[in-house]
Please model this.
Amino acid sequence: RVHGSLLVLNELMRCSNAQWERSYEDLMQKLQCPVTTPPSDSVSLLPRLKSPLISTKTRQSTASHTSISSIVLANNKSNPEHMLFESSVCRSLMIEHFDDVCSETLAQRISRSTHILQTLLAILPRLAAFNKEKFVKTHLNPTMVYLLTTLRGRDRDRATAFTTIGLIAVAVEDHIKPYLPKIMEIIRASLPTKDTPSKKRTSGIEPTVFVCITLLGHAVKTLIKSDVKDLLEPMLATGLSPALTTSLRELATSIPQLKPDISEGLLRMLSQVLMNKHVRTSHIPGVSASLSSEPQEIASIVLALRTLGSFNFDGHSLLQFVRRCAEHFLNSEQQEVRLEAVRTCSRLLRLAVESSSSRH
Model:
């Protein structure tokens, strides 16, 4: 019964704040995280009001906590076919009972049910975004105490808690500042150190650790500049992964002062993957073949090539990588390596030509 009630509350919150849902989906897309979208049938559950549909801009022009006699349709720019609906009835209901909803939701912290706790972690950022002032004043502290306690544990909710903390930070912005030292302490402890054996550096690292760091960067930006700078080496020590490269790309945008350090560290890692390996070829006689065709090796090379071709390495000459791609990866036996090498070479050559033209 409790789990069902939380699911209903979560759906009511989702239908009460289209602006946050759009921001949430945009963030998850940037971070390449799966977004759970409701089935199209759920639209039929919304109140059938006779008032016309209006855009989110119209809603933003009204008071943030007044009743809205319409359903708001928010188009998702990244996916025009997916639409976000906001119900005036749901929103009015949540405004009226916000404190009670927060209290009853947080009361489920003591539950041992995995389903209840997972739903709790999903609804907390929505509560924080719905009424930031009230949430910060009354509910932020117990929420953060609970989440930090969860992070220190080893249960299955730890991974989700990292993402929840990041989303709450985005919702409450600078109000997360008092909790940053403890959050960073736990993140630091989750990353490898110089004494960590190499085999353990890449295993057991939760990708959501990188998601949390990235969301904190979106939320408070330069407030965590020194912390992120200290975390760069431990992050890079985990090895090349989609979660890491996405995090570094977003952090370079959120905290531009760290872009030189991020670029240097990432280029060093890409060099280790691409410059020190040969790939098996079959099209050109006499080319050495010292790299195995194991899926893990292939995936690592493809990711390195994709990162090299998509990350903005301003101020760095990448022509050495173009030569490496042309001499080795364009002739790989693996189709995915060849295709990614073509894309990377094309982009790097285009950037080199554009850079040369701008100087003349």
